Amino acid sequence: MDDTRRKDVPGVGRYGGPAGGWGALQAVARAIRGQMGTGRNAIMLMRVNQPDGFDCPGCAWPDPRHGSSFEFCENGAKAVAWEATSHRTTPGFFAAHTVTELFRMTDHELEDEGRLTHPMAYDAATDRYVPIEWEDAMSRIGEALRALPHPDAAEFYTSGRASNEAAFLYQLFAREFGTNNFPDCSNMCHEATSVGMPESIGVGKGTVTLEDFDHCDAIFCFGHNPGTNHPRMLATLRAASRRGAQIIVVNPLRERGLERFTSPQSPAEMSLGLSTPIATQYVQPRIGGDAAVIKGMMKALLEADREARAGLLPPVIDQAFIDGHTTGYDGLVANLDDTAWPDIEAASGLTQQSIEETARIYADAKAAIFCYGMGITQHRQGTANVHQLCNLLLMRGNIGRAGAGICPLRGHSNVQGDRTVGITEIPSDAFLDRMEATFGTAMPRRRGHNAVETMQAMLAGESRALIALGGNLPVAMPDPELCHAAMRKLDLSVHIATKLNRSHLLVGKQSFLLPCLGRTEIDMQETGPQSVTVEDSMSMVHASRGTLQPASDMLRSEPWIVAAMAKATLPGSKVDWDALTADYNRIRDLIERVFPDFKDYNARVSEPLGFRLPNAASARRWNTNSKRANFITMEGLGEMPARDHSGALMLATIRSHDQYNTTIYGYNDRYRGITDRRDVIFVNPSDLEALGLAHGDKVDVEAVSDRVGVPGNRVLRNVTAVAYEISRGSVAAYYPEANHLVALENFDPRSGTPSYKSVPVFLRACRAPHQ
Ligand SMILES: Nc1nc2c(c(=O)[nH]1)N[C@H]1C(S)=C(S)[C@@H](COP(=O)(O)OP(=O)(O)OC[C@H]3O[C@@H](n4cnc5c(=O)[nH]c(N)nc54)[C@H](O)[C@@H]3O)O[C@H]1N2
Ligand SMILES: Nc1nc2c(c(=O)[nH]1)N[C@H]1C(S)=C(S)[C@@H](COP(=O)(O)OP(=O)(O)OC[C@H]3O[C@@H](n4cnc5c(=O)[nH]c(N)nc54)[C@H](O)[C@@H]3O)O[C@H]1N2
Ligand SMILES: [Mo]
Fold it and tell me: Where is the Molybdopterin dinucleotide-binding domain (predicted)?
């Protein structure tokens, strides 16, 4: 590798240090200076994730119990600086640029203009957004929604930053209007978890608490990159490493944050230049090879168990748990016996010996936790992957006891809470019954659209309106060509947002841009400043209260905006929307009436660290059809496109260290050695050689055509191939630029999650390199 990378390629180097450390502090200083000027509001940053401050909009990792000291996190600080910026996108800015001109700006430039300050409406005659008063905007939106042929012609998108209060009012409004069309960011993210885990263990959420990490012997990290996306988790992994727990990483790429970490909280590490190793074992399967790895580990456990029993050694499998709590085990065993090691090796890209070694570490751990992220869910077999993780845990009774369990790392800071309070296109009858009993209004019972179905319905002209509570839907979705076209066909698009992004520029007949308060800002209503509540990845619900002066007097809170839209759209509504926005305690009282798990909501959320929602599986109560935990067998080992398309590589689209989803803070990806650019593709040196390419060569990345009759139209041109420690047959490029290569039809049929992490592609030397 060193040889192949000797060539000097601009902006491509090697990062030799650990994650964290001084580099992280410098990056924060730069972000604050760039967004907030010098010296301003540093104190405010210190209030992130403090009991009386605001919840960090960065990620959904929980706060430690002993949250007295400021928990430093580089990317949390960047997220806050990006929201608390002093830059402003004013009506003057919109007057100076047509929407067509704005569309030519990069995603970074659009958001870097700063916070939106005034409600705006699109004016087709001048191709500009022009200022509008709140009241006029609302009455036009209400009128347009009422003019739709039927309620299911409207789509209500939610991105996962919305608070429980905003999300609950939003689903109430849309359901009173008459639809269950709730596409949300979770449809692109952990939907495979929401579908797969309930089938296996009866809950759709993680079963562990932060304390479990203090008691486990082994932590497995499947397909997630905490050094960038959940940096506060590194403190937890560091503590586990220091007390001798095994940390096993399963990831096609070498990620620095999973190798070594210097804690900015540790004066010794910082001053002496020391770091703590994280992974005790780093396994690099092929992209999409996880099901094969997990099935291999289960097969190894089974074989070790048989040997142990034959030799009268302690068993490897928890038979008492399997007999007492589960179904389907015999089917799993039969399937594993039928699966041959050479097939497992080919599908995983790992040797039998290496998989057996990983299985042995798992078998030696009295209690193990499996953490996972997008590397598991964003595949056509995402739901099956989640089932396999559950199977492997169940084989050793690793669910529902101290130090053991499953830990999906949720994405947006309140995506889990939004789901809990009713943002779902497939509501249960029990939930709708309670909604009807609480509000005395009939609720729609038809299944609604998820994100992919929303785009399809918009393209087909069946859905005519999109309301977006945050996010950047058509940019986050696959295939921008189709999704952009879908947006332009709408009669009405309404964006509730903090910053300008490309979705807002894909205007329909009528488009509105409604600027809202962010989490860092004081939310003043009739009864005084309000708190909102959020739920983290471990089902802890806690309060968040903004502390900054709003970016503009014209901003409104998300609950206020939703209520105003509801009033304008539903003149006959039985809900007292004004009373709810005047005092958010009243919204929480309603949430409690619909969801009994929120018992004493207002009282309990005023505790400094909030409260944990009940989780049946973590108490070994199984809310599945069988009333037991289910072993769910997966046929085969997953897709291997390389076999059908010789020479194809599997592409995963990933996040850099300097972005938050479609928000591009900057162009560096420090831990991967990339500076000031994003137009790269990470390739294994042997694959480069086999393709006759060299490190630094310009290449075209062409998606293997899976849409009949449209050959070769999905090409990402002129990107630089970077030799990287990535498994053979696998390549990686940045999201959202590479979304161009992902077909809208390429999703997990079980959950609808787009297959952003297994995109078969060809790499070719660039036909017309622009050096
Ligand atoms: N700073 C920052 N924080 C964030 C976000 C952000 O963009 N920026 N996004 C938030 C959101 S919404 C989410 S969902 C999370 C995302 O957090 P992650 O799940 O960490 O997201 P990704 O960067 O998409 O990819 C994760 C990892 O999957 C690996 N991977 C790719 N393909 C495979 C595979 O087939 N198998 C395995 N085992 N691994 C694979 C990649 O190498 C990468 O290390 O982070 C949240 N937090
Ligand atoms: N190729 C590829 N595509 C992917 C992924 C991938 O790994 N690869 N990941 C997928 C995943 S996991 C996710 S979650 C989606 C993300 O999809 P989204 O959640 O739709 O996208 P974001 O980029 O997080 O949204 C950014 C915008 O949110 C708005 N915003 C920020 N804060 C607030 C707020 O407090 N309130 C409101 N109302 N608006 C706010 C700003 O205007 C900002 O421009 O993308 C998915 N797309
Ligand atoms: Mo996500």
Answer: 649-760
